[in-house]
Specification:
By secondary structure, the chain is an alpha/beta fold. It folds into two domains: 8-20 and 113-260, Rossmann fold, CATH 3.40.50.1000; 25-111. The protein is built from ten helices and six strands, in the order E-H-H-H-H-H-E-H-E-H-E-H-E-E-H-H. It has a six-stranded parallel β-sheet with strand order 3-2-1-4-5-6, sandwiched between helices. Helix 1 (25-42) packs across helix 2. The longest helix is centred in the N-terminal third of the chain and has 22 residues, at 50-71.
Length: 261
């Protein structure tokens, strides 16, 4: 097949592959602080009083989130934990640091779910000969995200998993999309990008020359979808959409994304 035949599919993570819905950040943070505090106490680490521990970490995360907003980059949660812990005198093995990172993420993981047909959909895409990858803006360390993906049975489908904390730029910067295409050894115009955010996913994919697919979610409700952007409600719609894209290429040559819409 010539032209823009789809060769790969990249997915965003939150509200695309993993569904969390609207969350109460304050409640989640308190739970995460308690889980991580208890874990450290069990290992005899000098954590002090819980109230001070929670407040100190709350101030730290807010400061780093503000820095991320101002710089357009994401920090590495595991590195941040190690920096904080060493100042406090924590002595943990690498596996224990990763477990501590997981304890901070655990309340979010417990909220997460996937669509019922996600596994069969990904299997169909793989059987179509498509490469599958993940590209997500996040400060959560890959070891924790891999653990969550493993728990829900998705890790095996994605050899490529790129997270913004690993780079000095993040979505919608086209460089991170182009880096994903490069690692998949695929031309960006032959990559479908599936995400839920108009500002991060759709805009970035368009800038990089990829084929953007917007998955319906609360994050894009009542947002106008620009011409040339495909829209799906469920991931299970992807195999048929990609088949249609490839059939259009075969009939018409190499149309632009807007022509295929």
């Amino acid at each position: 097949m010539a032209g823009r035949t789809v060769q790969a599919v990249l997915f965003d993570l939150g509200e695309t592959l993993l569904l969390f819905g609207r969350l109460k950040a304050g409640k989640l943070f308190k739970q995460a602080a308690r889980f991580s505090y208890d874990y450290l106490k069990q290992r005899g680490q000098p954590v002090g009083r819980f109230g001070v521990y929670r407040l100190w970490n709350l101030l730290g995360i807010r400061l780093h989130l503000l820095y991320s907003f101002l710089t357009g980059t994401d920090f590495d949660s595991l590195s941040l934990l190690k920096e904080y812990g060493r100042k406090k005198g924590f002595t943990l093995s690498e596996a224990e640091w990763e477990e501590l990172n997981w304890q901070w993420y655990r309340p979010l993981a417990e909220k997460g779910r996937i669509e019922p047909q996600t596994h069969s959909t990904l299997q169909k895409l793989r059987e179509m000969g498509l490469q599958l990858g993940i590209l997500s803006n996040t400060f959560v360390h890959g070891s924790t995200l891999d653990r969550h993906l493993q728990q829900v049975g998705l890790l095996e489908f994605f050899d490529l998993r790129l997270y913004s904390y690993q780079f000095s730029f993040r979505k919608p910067d086209p460089r991170i999309f182009l880096e994903a295409a490069r690692r998949m050894q695929t031309e960006p115009q032959k990559v479908v990008f599936v995400g839920d955010r108009m500002d991060k996913d759709v805009r970035g994919a368009l800038r990089a020359g990829m084929i953007p697919v917007l998955k319906e979610a609360y994050t894009n409700q009542k947002k106008r979808v620009p011409d040339g952007v495909f829209r799906i409600q469920y991931l299970s719609e992807l195999p048929e959409l990609i088949k249609q894209l490839n059939e259009d290429v075969n009939r018409e040559g190499s149309p632009s994304v807007s022509e295929m819409h």
